Amino acid sequence: MEKGRDSASSRSSRLARDDAVYISLSNRPKDPDGTPKGTKAVNGVSSVVIAMGVVSMLTDISTESVSAILPLYVTGVLGLSTVAYGVLDGLYQGVSAIVRIGAGWAADVGDQPKWVAFFGYGLSAIARIALLFATSFGALAAVLTADRLGKGIRTAPRDSLITAASKPNNLAASFGVHRALDNTGAAIGPLLAFVILLLIPNGYSTVFVVSLAFALVGVAVLGIIVPNRGSGTRALPATSPAEPPRNRRRIRWRELNNPGLKRLLLVAGLLGVLTIGDGFIYLVLQDRSSFAAQYFPLLYVGTNVAFLIFAVPVGKLADRFGRARTFVIGHILLLAAYVSATLPITGAAITILCLVLLGGFYAATDGILSVLATQFTTPDTRATSIAAAQTVVALTRFISAAGFGILWFAIGRDSAMMLVSIGVAIAIPTVAIILRSARPYRADV
Length: 445
What we know:
Elements: H1 2-21, E1 41-42, E2 45-46, H2 47-67, H3 70-77, H4 82-94, H5 97-110, H6 113-131, H7 137-164, H8 171-199, H9 204-224, H10 259-273, H11 278-289, H12 297-321, H13 323-342, H14 348-375, H15 382-411, H16 413-436
């Protein structure tokens, strides 16, 4: 009897320890400022968020310096049509969907989001090398595919790292700080491309080399400086030398079967189909205003500077005003950007207005989508749920980019823009109604 009681006591002890290990982010030990234990904070934002912001800034200098010249490089240097550019832009927007959920699942199941993200950043850096030799549609498509696969692998684990290191009631603000640093790089990249092309006419290969250098530095910073932060769930130690370590809990897929998450995915898909790539909007602006091609990268600078300015205040506003409401308002700004691009008005003022509206759209939707995804799941499936939302966006934006390229070719620039604008105007109230009925999985996220 005594032995049986000891055995029962031992089992109870192990069960209690299981429950203690699988704690949520909100119950993890915290420092006095409320951030997870061992995480330094600057003005309420974790040092991990700052470090990831630096990595994203360096990577975005690399990425956006190429993105800023890609429309002109494809249509001007390579001499391809807008349909070909639409396909390439679709790959750029959507091919990452192939790996997003798998990468999020790998980050969750191994509780190693940093190293999954590291692999993704590394793959994109390798693609920069191949870009130096891509001079045909097929080669360029292959390079862009590899680059975007890297983005698909890294994004959800990166956002999971940010979430794990942040206070639940300050989450949108943390994403705002990260996106502000990210878009510092997104503004520097096109500006750098502009300066290079200004000093070296047709210096596209020089832009590609500089892009590679920044990508490699970003990978190095991630590997050396950024700590790994998972959900807080770890493998349990053995209770005796003869007993192997106990495995950590497997992901329960039913935790992703949340009505709120389903509604969010529906909303993300509906709006994604109606969100055309920035490159098309910039081609519309250039076609209407007829400014010199060398100034084309400055359009990317304008949008990203606006994003940079709005990211932190909009993130703080979303935490207080409502994240779903902010997300909907962001798409109202997108609609206004579409309308301003198609107005029969030319000049610097209307161009700047369009860029500011686009920057506001990204500030109100980019990081907010990830925050919304975390509201409808548990910490153990956080990266997977973020990846699911991002996958839907990537797939639908691939359809949008390819479809808009064909639409432009078939019915003309202005008619295509008008048709998409009408679609967004119809979708906005529909989305607002769908999100209003969505209920968070956890009350403390």
